[in-house]
Amino acid sequence: MSGGAWVLPPRPGLVIPVLPCDWRICQSTSVAIGSDSVALSAGSHLRLLPPGRRGSSSASSRRADSGRRLGPEKWIASFRRMESESESGAAADTPPLETLSFHGDEEIIEVVELDPGPPDPDDLAQEMEDVDFEEEEEEEEGNDEAWVLEPQEGVVGSMEGPDDSEVTFALHSASVFCVSLDPKTNTLAVTGGEDDKAFVWRLSDGELLFECAGHKDSVTCTGFSHDSTLVATGDMSGLLKVWQVDTKEEVWSFEAGDLEWMEWHPRAPVLLAGTADGNTWMWKVPNGDCKTFQGPNCPATCGRVLPDGKRAVVGYEDGTIRIWDLKQGNPIHVLKGTEGHQGPLTCVATNQDGSLILTGSVDCQAKLVSATTGKVVGVFRPETVASQPSLGEGEESESNSVESLGFCSVMPLAAVGYLDGTLAIYDLSTQTLRHQCQHQSGIVQLLWETGTAVVYTCSLDGIVRLWDARTGRLLTDYRGHTAEILDFALSKDASLVVTTSGDHKAKVFCVQRPDR
């Protein structure tokens, strides 16, 4: 059975709840399929495949999928409520064949019919000859009475173990997708999650300052303004809200299209965001003056304001890259075709002075672009995927993708993190691979420590690691989460790492290194 599948055990007379959005039912053997429903006889095993497990295997797609759609916790709750109603007689009039409604592009992947009657002794003896008892024992161990979530792809072994964190924030009731620190004092954090909630809390003790209320979809973007006076939150549906930190009052809100990314301007109370309709939005907060930058007819998947505050680079799902003049509202440079990527962009970064841009994509390439000329000056690809065939337009790699990247501030180095767990350190002056550091599972995000050649990574195995980019040596790691880390932030002095996870928690780790 595939990793990350959900198993619904046989329950005679069970009323199966309607599947929300895109939780996919998995390939069938014998079921009655209507135009918009499927009838299952009582006593069937139904295997559900979460949306992130099909098509793109990138960590960013998984986060977006689980954020946009009803997650497993809500699914299970719905399942248990309806099961309770069924047992209490509330569903007594339900026909013998349960009906499951389909939405969008859901598809049946697997339905296993079970024989309700006792087996004939001769048939049983014949079947026993082909049974692999070791395999059966493994399946029995994982088949509880309730739903079973198998290990996700790329996650090795159990995440239970020591907790190195100093503070744990546990007010979220579902996966925590994002975290940001206030840039002025680095004493506050804002986190957003699948529970449709965002909280501002204190790093020193985890005390809640206030909740950013009013979201009705997963909160996937959060951030403080440059002076830490404002905090913004954005959910997958495109609802953005801004609060005044000292008064804890909401001062602005706006409903855009489905949200892909959000970022504050580095020197002004100006908020930028990219949406699924291809637009990049820019607002003055709180007066609400708005400007839009229209891209191609596809999602603006990632973006970054350049350090000069006058330009922004935006990557799109069709592989194109645009560098926008924020004042004039027109694209200064457009990279497409062979100059762009051959798949959706996943991340973008700039160096300290804004002269260079690094872009990453599901095509496994990282491209170094001159912000002045708009020309590609370097292309990086890990040696482990050098032989991977080229992808067609819009096609995604099933085995690997670039998930995060960034520039070192003290040496001509760039780091690229891949879904297969590879951290590649490239020398920009020679455009060669300097080190390749392997993780046990996919890298979600990386951050460089300011003023040093140390790069931090977080990954799907729930561990934060510190690497010396000069030698490629692992300096230390920090553990404590019991599920994958989905985002993390680093304080300015690199003394604190704040992480968010699928275990519904955010954690604060105090960084202690013998080399400083």
Secondary structure layout plus pairing:
Blueprint: E1 6-8, E2 24-25, E3 32-33, E4 37-41, E5 44-49, H1 59-68, H2 72-87, E6 97-101, E7 111-113, H3 121-128, H4 133-142, E8 167-169, E9 176-181, E10 188-193, E11 198-202, E12 208-211, E13 219-224, E14 230-235, E15 239-244, E16 249-255, E17 259-264, E18 270-275, E19 279-284, E20 290-294, E21 300-305, E22 311-316, E23 321-325, E24 331-335, E25 345-350, E26 356-361, E27 366-370, E28 376-380, E29 402-407, E30 413-418, E31 422-427, E32 432-438, E33 443-448, E34 454-459, E35 464-468, E36 473-478, E37 485-490, E38 496-501, E39 506-510
Antiparallel strand pairs: 1-5, 2-5, 3-4, 4-6, 5-7, 8-39, 9-10, 10-11, 11-12, 13-14, 14-15, 15-16, 17-18, 18-19, 19-20, 21-22, 22-23, 23-24, 25-26, 26-27, 27-28, 29-30, 30-31, 31-32, 33-34, 34-35, 35-36, 37-38, 38-39
Core attributes:
single chain, 516 residues, mainly beta, four-stranded antiparallel beta sheet, 4 helices, globular
CA distance, first residue to last residue? 48 Å
Helical content (DSSP H or I, runs of 4+): under 10%
What fraction strand? 35-45%
Oligomeric status? single chain
Count of β-strands:
39
Largest sheet: 4 strands, antiparallel
